[in-house]
Structure formats: C-alpha cells, structure tokens
Amino acid sequence: MPEIVVILVEPKFPGNIGSVARAMSNFGLDKLVLVNPCELGDDAFRYAKHGRFVLDKARAVKRLDTALKGLDMVIGTTGRPTDSDKKFLREPITSRQLAEQFSNKTGKIGILFGREDYGLYNDELRNCDVLVTIPTHEINPIMNLSHACTVVFYELYAHGRKARAKKLAKSVEKEALNRIFAELLDEIAYSQHKKAKTRIMFRKIVARAGLSTWEFHTLAGVFTRATKSVSRLKAGKR
User: Fold this and answer.
1) What is the rounded average pLDDT for all residues in the chain?
2) Which CATH number applies to 3-165: 3.30.1360.20, 1.20.1250.20, 3.40.1280.10, 3.40.1190.20?
3) Are 178 and 206 in contact (CB under 8 A)?
4) Which of 113, 135, 165, 196 has the most CB atoms at less than 10 Å from its CB?
5) How far apart, in whole angstroms, are the C-alpha atoms of residue 13 and residue 6?
6) Are 124 and 78 in contact (CB under 8 A)?
7) Choice between 211 and 227, residue whose per-residue pLDDT is larger
C-alpha cells in the first residue's frame, strides 16, 4: 500500500472536512492537507467523530504547489469526465481501476479532491498524473465530497490488503522518461503541431501504467537507445 496524502482543494464546509477525516480514519489514512480551506470550527470536529486525530494533525497551506511537494504521483478526481479520447486532461479511470493499478505500489501518492461546487479547475488538473472518477447514475452524477472520498478510500484499502507491493517509480524518474520521449520525438522530426498533445498523452499513459522503478529503467533504456540509433542514421546520411 502506498503512502496516501489526501488533499482537499479549497473546501467550503467544515462538516465536509470533518466527514472526510472520519472516512480517512475508517480506512487507515491520517495525512490530510487543506489548500486554502474555510475555517474548521466545531462542525468539522463534530463530524469527524473518531477521526478527530486526523484533523488535529492536518496541514493547511495557501497554494496547491506547496501541497504537491515531495509526492511521487498526483491523482486528481472529477465528476465530469470527457467523452472524447482527444481530451487527455479529463480522461479518467474509475476508482476501482485506480485501486487495482496502484494499491500494490510503494511511494507517496497525493489524491486531490476539488471544491464542493466546481471541483478542480483545468490548471489544477494539469498537475495530475492520473484522473479518477466514480461512475454514478445520470440522474445525480455529482457525489458529495465526503461520499466520493469514502468510495476512493474503500477501494484502495480493500485492494491494498491483498496486493503484493511494488516500488513505484518516483516523480523525478517519470519526468526523466517524459523528457527522453520528447527527445525521441525531436530526433524523428515528429510533426511540430502534434508534439504538445502527444507528450501529454504519453505522460498520462505512463502515469496510468503505474511504472515500477525497474520498468522505468527498462523503458528509459529503450527510448535512449532508439534516439541514439536515429541520430547515428541521420549522421550517416549527411
């Protein structure tokens, strides 16, 4: 089971924060970061019940980038997924798929939950390696914040109890792989107007795969060798 950091972005209601803390305690989570939150007040602690200890040690920060420091992976959540394969920013996996892919990894993973009314903004979603959604009925597709948190926490907990641990590739390793891939695109003269979207697509694929450190080094070696081979071929033709 990875080390999970729950990050609530600009939560508006103390009761919701307390309910999230209670759900965290149900599933063995205790690291909570609040980004520019409302005042906690008595409601937060009343709703937290036996999860008061989560609130006691919760960290409040002003900026999202402060909350993201030191994380190996960032998971975003949304109730508004896209129907288009080309809109990579809002192309999510389900909460169960998240648990299946990442509950057997080790590393530090942050899970972002957005505002009760607007969720996460696009510029915040760009910080996320993977986007997660909870399938719901079209009559009422948007879940209450604490209810959505509970579903995600349960899935991770249930799968984590029976999963064999694999060391998750660190954020610096994933960024290195993304950089190596970008260098390969440059070397093969990939269409300039397609590069940005292709790099985003590759980043999302890598994140969803939940690469282990060994898998990262293998892929990085393949891409590096491919880039060098193309470079030598081009040099030989000149």
Assistant:
1) 88
2) 3.40.1280.10
3) yes
4) 113
5) 16
6) no
7) 227
